[in-house]
Amino acid sequence: MDEFELIRRYFSLAHATRSDVTLGIGDDAAVLDLAPGRELVVTVDSLVAGVHFPSDLESQAVGHRALAVNLSDLAAMGAEPAWALLALTLPAADDTWLAGFSRGFFSLAERHGVALVGGNLAHGPLNITVTLQGTLPKGEAITRRGAKTGDLVYVTGHPGDAAAGLQLLQAGNADSGNPCVQRFAYPEPRVAAGAALRGLASAAIDISDGLVADLGHVLAMSGVGARIEVERLPLSRRLLELHGLLQARELALGGGDDYELCFTVPAARVAELETLARTFDCLVTAIGRIESHPGLRLLDGQGREVKLAGHGYRHF
Ligand SMILES: [Mg+2]
After folding, report:
1. Fewer CB atoms inside 10 Å of the end CB: C or N, the chain?
2. 8 C-alpha to ligand 1 centroid (Å)
Protein backbone atom coordinates (compact mmCIF):
# COMPACT_ATOMS: atom_id res chain seq x y z
CA MET A 1 0.00 0.00 0.00
CA ASP A 2 1.46 3.42 -0.87
CA GLU A 3 1.32 6.62 1.15
CA PHE A 4 -1.74 7.93 -0.69
CA GLU A 5 -3.68 4.72 -0.24
CA LEU A 6 -2.82 4.69 3.51
CA ILE A 7 -3.92 8.30 3.87
CA ARG A 8 -7.13 7.65 1.99
CA ARG A 9 -7.94 4.59 4.04
CA TYR A 10 -7.09 5.79 7.56
CA PHE A 11 -6.89 9.57 7.61
CA SER A 12 -9.75 10.82 5.54
CA LEU A 13 -12.33 9.31 7.87
CA ALA A 14 -15.42 11.35 8.54
CA HIS A 15 -14.49 13.64 11.42
CA ALA A 16 -15.19 17.13 12.63
CA THR A 17 -15.70 19.47 9.70
CA ARG A 18 -15.29 23.15 10.38
CA SER A 19 -16.54 26.11 8.39
CA ASP A 20 -13.23 27.90 9.10
CA VAL A 21 -11.23 25.34 7.05
CA THR A 22 -11.04 27.06 3.67
CA LEU A 23 -8.84 24.28 2.28
CA GLY A 24 -8.01 21.07 4.16
CA ILE A 25 -6.08 17.88 3.32
CA GLY A 26 -5.15 17.38 -0.33
CA ASP A 27 -3.32 20.52 -1.42
CA ASP A 28 0.24 21.65 -0.67
CA ALA A 29 -0.91 23.36 2.52
CA ALA A 30 -4.11 24.07 4.41
CA VAL A 31 -5.85 27.45 4.36
CA LEU A 32 -7.58 28.41 7.60
CA ASP A 33 -9.83 31.31 8.39
CA LEU A 34 -9.03 33.04 11.70
CA ALA A 35 -12.05 35.01 12.95
CA PRO A 36 -11.55 38.74 13.62
CA GLY A 37 -10.59 39.57 17.20
CA ARG A 38 -9.12 36.13 17.88
CA GLU A 39 -5.53 34.98 18.31
CA LEU A 40 -3.94 31.75 17.13
CA VAL A 41 -2.54 29.46 19.87
CA VAL A 42 -0.16 26.77 18.58
CA THR A 43 1.55 23.77 20.19
CA VAL A 44 3.47 20.68 19.05
CA ASP A 45 4.35 17.42 20.81
CA SER A 46 6.15 14.27 19.69
CA LEU A 47 5.47 10.83 21.11
CA VAL A 48 8.33 8.39 20.63
CA ALA A 49 7.62 4.67 21.10
CA GLY A 50 9.56 3.24 24.04
CA VAL A 51 10.23 6.74 25.41
CA HIS A 52 6.82 8.36 25.91
CA PHE A 53 4.73 5.20 25.86
CA PRO A 54 5.45 1.43 25.99
CA SER A 55 6.00 0.17 22.42
CA ASP A 56 3.26 -2.45 22.84
CA LEU A 57 0.61 0.04 24.02
CA GLU A 58 -2.59 -0.56 22.04
CA SER A 59 -2.66 1.66 18.97
CA GLN A 60 -6.05 3.18 19.80
CA ALA A 61 -4.47 4.57 22.98
CA VAL A 62 -1.46 5.85 21.01
CA GLY A 63 -3.80 7.74 18.66
CA HIS A 64 -5.77 9.15 21.59
CA ARG A 65 -2.69 10.21 23.55
CA ALA A 66 -1.02 11.84 20.53
CA LEU A 67 -3.90 14.30 20.28
CA ALA A 68 -4.72 14.44 24.02
CA VAL A 69 -1.30 15.76 25.09
CA ASN A 70 -1.65 18.64 22.63
CA LEU A 71 -5.26 19.35 23.62
CA SER A 72 -4.01 19.53 27.19
CA ASP A 73 -1.43 22.20 26.27
CA LEU A 74 -4.12 24.32 24.61
CA ALA A 75 -6.42 23.78 27.62
CA ALA A 76 -3.69 25.16 29.88
CA MET A 77 -3.70 28.36 27.78
CA GLY A 78 -7.49 28.63 27.88
CA ALA A 79 -7.68 28.14 24.11
CA GLU A 80 -10.38 26.40 22.08
CA PRO A 81 -8.83 23.73 19.83
CA ALA A 82 -9.54 23.86 16.09
CA TRP A 83 -7.02 22.44 13.58
CA ALA A 84 -4.52 19.55 13.81
CA LEU A 85 -1.55 18.47 11.70
CA LEU A 86 -0.23 14.92 12.05
CA ALA A 87 3.27 13.70 11.13
CA LEU A 88 3.46 9.94 11.49
CA THR A 89 6.61 7.82 11.11
CA LEU A 90 5.78 4.12 10.94
CA PRO A 91 8.01 1.01 10.91
CA ALA A 92 5.43 -0.83 8.73
CA ALA A 93 2.04 -0.26 7.13
CA ASP A 94 0.21 -2.50 9.60
CA ASP A 95 -3.53 -2.35 8.91
CA THR A 96 -4.67 -3.41 12.37
CA TRP A 97 -2.36 -0.93 14.06
CA LEU A 98 -3.41 1.94 11.78
CA ALA A 99 -7.11 1.18 12.16
CA GLY A 100 -6.78 1.37 15.97
CA PHE A 101 -4.64 4.50 15.83
CA SER A 102 -7.04 6.38 13.61
CA ARG A 103 -10.02 5.29 15.76
CA GLY A 104 -8.32 6.68 18.89
CA PHE A 105 -7.22 9.90 17.21
CA PHE A 106 -10.45 10.73 15.40
CA SER A 107 -12.86 9.87 18.20
CA LEU A 108 -11.10 12.39 20.46
CA ALA A 109 -10.84 14.93 17.60
CA GLU A 110 -14.58 14.63 16.99
CA ARG A 111 -15.41 15.21 20.65
CA HIS A 112 -13.42 18.45 20.68
CA GLY A 113 -14.40 19.73 17.23
CA VAL A 114 -10.86 19.38 15.88
CA ALA A 115 -10.36 19.04 12.11
CA LEU A 116 -7.27 17.25 10.74
CA VAL A 117 -6.08 19.67 8.04
CA GLY A 118 -2.80 18.12 6.95
CA GLY A 119 -0.12 15.58 7.63
CA ASN A 120 2.84 13.57 6.55
CA LEU A 121 3.66 9.85 6.48
CA ALA A 122 7.20 8.47 6.60
CA HIS A 123 8.89 5.11 7.08
CA GLY A 124 11.06 4.64 10.20
CA PRO A 125 10.89 4.00 13.98
CA LEU A 126 7.42 4.73 15.41
CA ASN A 127 7.06 8.44 16.15
CA ILE A 128 3.92 10.55 16.21
CA THR A 129 4.09 14.33 16.07
CA VAL A 130 0.92 16.39 16.31
CA THR A 131 0.73 20.15 15.83
CA LEU A 132 -2.47 21.56 17.23
CA GLN A 133 -3.84 25.04 16.66
CA GLY A 134 -6.58 26.71 18.63
CA THR A 135 -7.94 30.19 19.10
CA LEU A 136 -9.04 32.55 21.83
CA PRO A 137 -10.13 36.19 22.12
CA LYS A 138 -7.14 38.49 21.65
CA GLY A 139 -5.16 39.08 24.83
CA GLU A 140 -7.00 36.48 26.94
CA ALA A 141 -4.47 33.62 27.00
CA ILE A 142 -3.77 32.18 30.46
CA THR A 143 0.01 31.99 30.85
CA ARG A 144 2.51 30.68 33.40
CA ARG A 145 3.48 34.23 34.39
CA GLY A 146 0.50 35.59 36.28
CA ALA A 147 0.58 33.89 39.72
CA LYS A 148 0.63 36.41 42.59
CA THR A 149 1.33 36.10 46.32
CA GLY A 150 -1.87 35.07 48.11
CA ASP A 151 -3.43 33.27 45.11
CA LEU A 152 -4.78 29.78 45.77
CA VAL A 153 -3.32 26.80 43.89
CA TYR A 154 -5.78 24.32 42.37
CA VAL A 155 -5.50 21.02 40.56
CA THR A 156 -8.09 19.14 38.49
CA GLY A 157 -8.82 15.41 38.66
CA HIS A 158 -6.72 12.87 40.56
CA PRO A 159 -2.99 13.34 39.90
CA GLY A 160 -0.88 10.22 40.38
CA ASP A 161 -3.28 7.76 38.76
CA ALA A 162 -1.57 7.87 35.35
CA ALA A 163 1.90 7.28 36.80
CA ALA A 164 0.54 4.28 38.72
CA GLY A 165 -1.00 3.01 35.47
CA LEU A 166 2.30 3.34 33.61
CA GLN A 167 4.06 1.39 36.39
CA LEU A 168 1.51 -1.41 35.97
CA LEU A 169 2.06 -1.46 32.19
CA GLN A 170 5.84 -1.49 32.61
CA ALA A 171 5.61 -4.36 35.09
CA GLY A 172 3.86 -6.30 32.31
CA ASN A 173 0.96 -7.45 34.47
CA ALA A 174 -1.55 -4.74 33.67
CA ASP A 175 -5.19 -5.46 33.13
CA SER A 176 -6.09 -2.96 30.38
CA GLY A 177 -9.39 -2.26 32.17
CA ASN A 178 -7.61 -1.12 35.34
CA PRO A 179 -8.72 2.50 35.96
CA CYS A 180 -5.13 3.71 36.51
CA VAL A 181 -3.99 2.06 33.26
CA GLN A 182 -6.95 3.75 31.55
CA ARG A 183 -5.86 7.12 32.97
CA PHE A 184 -2.41 6.61 31.42
CA ALA A 185 -3.64 5.22 28.09
CA TYR A 186 -6.62 7.56 27.63
CA PRO A 187 -5.93 10.85 29.44
CA GLU A 188 -8.88 13.27 29.37
CA PRO A 189 -7.58 16.75 28.50
CA ARG A 190 -9.41 19.48 30.48
CA VAL A 191 -10.36 21.53 27.44
CA ALA A 192 -13.71 22.92 28.65
CA ALA A 193 -12.33 23.73 32.12
CA GLY A 194 -9.32 25.53 30.62
CA ALA A 195 -11.46 27.75 28.38
CA ALA A 196 -13.84 28.50 31.27
CA LEU A 197 -10.91 29.65 33.44
CA ARG A 198 -10.04 32.51 31.05
CA GLY A 199 -10.39 35.79 32.90
CA LEU A 200 -10.39 34.03 36.29
CA ALA A 201 -7.21 31.95 36.62
CA SER A 202 -4.11 34.12 37.10
CA ALA A 203 -1.79 31.36 35.74
CA ALA A 204 -2.10 27.78 34.52
CA ILE A 205 -0.08 24.82 33.29
CA ASP A 206 -0.96 21.25 32.38
CA ILE A 207 0.66 18.42 34.30
CA SER A 208 2.78 16.35 31.94
CA ASP A 209 6.03 15.91 33.91
CA GLY A 210 4.55 15.84 37.44
CA LEU A 211 2.74 18.33 39.69
CA VAL A 212 5.87 19.54 41.53
CA ALA A 213 7.91 19.93 38.33
CA ASP A 214 5.14 21.68 36.39
CA LEU A 215 3.99 23.95 39.22
CA GLY A 216 7.70 24.78 39.57
CA HIS A 217 7.61 26.25 36.03
CA VAL A 218 4.69 28.53 37.01
CA LEU A 219 6.52 29.68 40.14
CA ALA A 220 9.73 30.41 38.22
CA MET A 221 7.94 32.29 35.43
CA SER A 222 5.80 34.25 37.90
CA GLY A 223 8.71 35.05 40.24
CA VAL A 224 6.95 33.63 43.32
CA GLY A 225 6.97 30.54 45.56
CA ALA A 226 4.23 28.30 46.97
CA ARG A 227 3.22 25.94 49.72
CA ILE A 228 1.37 22.71 48.98
CA GLU A 229 -0.48 21.03 51.83
CA VAL A 230 0.04 17.37 51.00
CA GLU A 231 -3.03 16.29 53.00
CA ARG A 232 -5.20 18.22 50.54
CA LEU A 233 -4.00 16.25 47.51
CA PRO A 234 -7.02 14.62 45.82
CA LEU A 235 -5.69 11.04 45.89
CA SER A 236 -8.07 8.57 44.27
CA ARG A 237 -9.23 5.54 46.21
CA ARG A 238 -7.82 3.28 43.47
CA LEU A 239 -4.39 4.90 43.83
CA LEU A 240 -4.48 4.52 47.63
CA GLU A 241 -5.51 0.87 47.30
CA LEU A 242 -2.59 0.18 44.94
CA HIS A 243 0.11 2.08 46.81
CA GLY A 244 -0.82 3.24 50.30
CA LEU A 245 -0.74 6.88 51.43
CA LEU A 246 2.95 7.77 51.26
CA GLN A 247 3.66 6.23 47.86
CA ALA A 248 0.36 7.61 46.50
CA ARG A 249 1.48 11.11 47.54
CA GLU A 250 4.83 10.61 45.84
CA LEU A 251 3.08 9.62 42.61
CA ALA A 252 0.62 12.53 42.81
CA LEU A 253 3.46 15.02 43.34
CA GLY A 254 6.23 13.53 41.22
CA GLY A 255 4.59 11.20 38.68
CA GLY A 256 3.83 12.52 35.20
CA ASP A 257 1.35 11.87 32.40
CA ASP A 258 -1.70 13.16 34.29
CA TYR A 259 -2.66 15.86 31.77
CA GLU A 260 -4.62 17.57 34.53
CA LEU A 261 -4.53 21.35 34.95
CA CYS A 262 -2.75 23.14 37.79
CA PHE A 263 -3.84 26.77 38.08
CA THR A 264 -3.92 29.72 40.44
CA VAL A 265 -6.83 32.01 41.36
CA PRO A 266 -6.72 35.31 43.33
CA ALA A 267 -8.06 34.80 46.89
CA ALA A 268 -10.76 37.46 46.29
CA ARG A 269 -12.23 35.34 43.48
CA VAL A 270 -12.35 31.93 45.16
CA ALA A 271 -16.15 31.93 45.57
CA GLU A 272 -16.51 32.65 41.85
CA LEU A 273 -14.13 29.78 41.03
CA GLU A 274 -16.02 27.38 43.28
CA THR A 275 -19.32 28.21 41.59
CA LEU A 276 -17.76 27.80 38.15
CA ALA A 277 -16.06 24.52 39.08
CA ARG A 278 -19.47 22.93 39.78
CA THR A 279 -20.11 23.09 36.03
CA PHE A 280 -16.86 21.19 35.23
CA ASP A 281 -16.88 17.49 34.44
CA CYS A 282 -13.87 16.99 36.71
CA LEU A 283 -12.94 17.48 40.33
CA VAL A 284 -11.24 20.78 41.26
CA THR A 285 -9.27 20.90 44.53
CA ALA A 286 -7.42 23.70 46.34
CA ILE A 287 -4.06 22.26 47.39
CA GLY A 288 -2.02 25.27 48.47
CA ARG A 289 -1.18 28.93 48.19
CA ILE A 290 1.25 31.19 46.36
CA GLU A 291 3.83 32.85 48.63
CA SER A 292 6.39 35.57 47.99
CA HIS A 293 9.33 33.43 49.19
CA PRO A 294 10.71 31.58 46.10
CA GLY A 295 10.60 27.77 45.87
CA LEU A 296 7.97 25.14 46.55
CA ARG A 297 7.36 23.89 50.10
CA LEU A 298 5.45 20.67 50.79
CA LEU A 299 3.79 20.76 54.22
CA ASP A 300 2.02 18.09 56.25
CA GLY A 301 -1.06 18.63 58.43
CA GLN A 302 1.08 19.96 61.30
CA GLY A 303 2.80 22.48 59.03
CA ARG A 304 6.05 20.47 58.95
CA GLU A 305 7.99 20.36 55.70
CA VAL A 306 8.04 16.98 53.92
CA LYS A 307 10.54 15.89 51.27
CA LEU A 308 9.78 14.26 47.95
CA ALA A 309 11.99 11.41 46.69
CA GLY A 310 11.51 12.04 42.95
CA HIS A 311 11.17 15.36 41.14
CA GLY A 312 9.17 14.55 38.05
CA TYR A 313 9.92 13.25 34.60
CA ARG A 314 13.22 14.31 33.07
CA HIS A 315 13.46 14.48 29.30
CA PHE A 316 17.25 13.87 29.08
MG1 LIG B 1 2.20 21.66 28.81
Report:
1. C
2. 32
